Amino acid sequence: MTFVSNNLTHRYEHPAVGQRASYASALARASNAPTWPAQVRPQPPTPGQVAPYTPRPEQMAVPQQAPFSLQNYANASLKGTPMHTAARAVGTIREVSVTRDSWGYERVHTRSLGTGSLINDGNSVLTNQHVRDALAKGSKLELWLGYEQDSTGRMKVERKVPLDPNPLSGDARLDYAELRVDLPVGEKKALAEQFRPLKLASGPQASPGQRVFMPNHGQEALGISFLNTKGQPTTLKGYDQHSRNQGTVYHDAFKKPGTSGSPLISVDTGEIVALHNGSIGASVNGQRDSMGTATRIDLIQQHRRQR
């Protein structure tokens, strides 16, 4: 399976030598600048001519909340919808490391590894195994919930949840890992009340044509993908006939680094029906296209019960 990432780059081009303004030309322009005749040179106003100062309320710049793109809308822009409610249980998986600088001060460094979902009554988090395996040795693992922009455009996080990096269960073939929430029982209960955990589909519900939406952290802040590139509702497209038990399903939701581990949630039931893990060039119904790939959640459920 091939994972595809699209990295956009921008290169600064220096102006040609002939286009650069020289110091001599700047002096020439300054010498030709108009001057005020002595008799009409403007004079500063007297205090009686100055209007009294009336303070104006400051205009707060509010960042654009939606859409991030055609395929990915800011979670905050969908407030009040079932999608927004479900997405609150989805966060960014963060690697946290601490170093000391030359002065002896501690420096905390974080980086995003992917996306994860709070499940199992708030006791664990579901993500990809390859997301878990990206953790550097000696670093800590956290789930950041409510990681979004505030009214000033700065990133904020509502809750940082410590995770045990040793999986409760996982499988490389299914590319899933279930991580334990490393909190006391009382705090887990409070966490589940604040961020309602998602439920996993109990049966084989992932089927071609099924409408889904995908909360994700593919663009740093929490987003929700529910439209494909054509502006149509996102759906499961079909099974990979070569995968074991047809365990891989294709979809047309948002695909970008950072979305790994995102849940594909049924529009009808609100349950996770598949776990996104990457993208691949695939042929579906005779048409070649870049498709997202995901593992059917019923196969993950079977593996979890065997642990």
Give a description of the structure:
The chain is mainly beta. Among the domains are: 90-194, Thrombin, subunit H; 212-305, Thrombin, subunit H. Helices cover 13% and strands 33% of the residues. The protein has five helices and 17 strands. The protein has helices at residues 23-31, 82-87, 129-133, 185-194, 297-305; strands at 73-74, 90-100, 106-119, 124-127, 140-145, 148-149, 155-156, 159-163, 169-171, 176-180, 212-219, 221-225, 236-239, 248-251, 263-266, 272-284, 287-296. Strands 1-12-11-15-16-17-14-13 form an eight-stranded antiparallel sheet. The chain has a seven-stranded antiparallel sheet with strand order 8-5-2-3-4-10-9. β16 (272-284) and β17 (287-296) form a beta hairpin. The longest helix has 10 residues, at 185-194. It is globular.
Which keywords apply here?
globular; 17 strands; disordered N terminus; Thrombin, subunit H; about 15% helix; single chain; mainly beta; about 300 residues
What is the helix fraction of residues, given as a range?
A: 10-25%
CATH class group of the domain at 90-194: Mainly Beta
Tell me, briefly, the overall form: globular
Number of helices: 5
Instruction: State the order of secondary-structure elements, H for helix, E for strand.
Output: HEHEEEHEEEEEEHEEEEEEEH
Report the average pLDDT across residues.
Answer: 79
Major β-sheet, in short?
8 strands, antiparallel
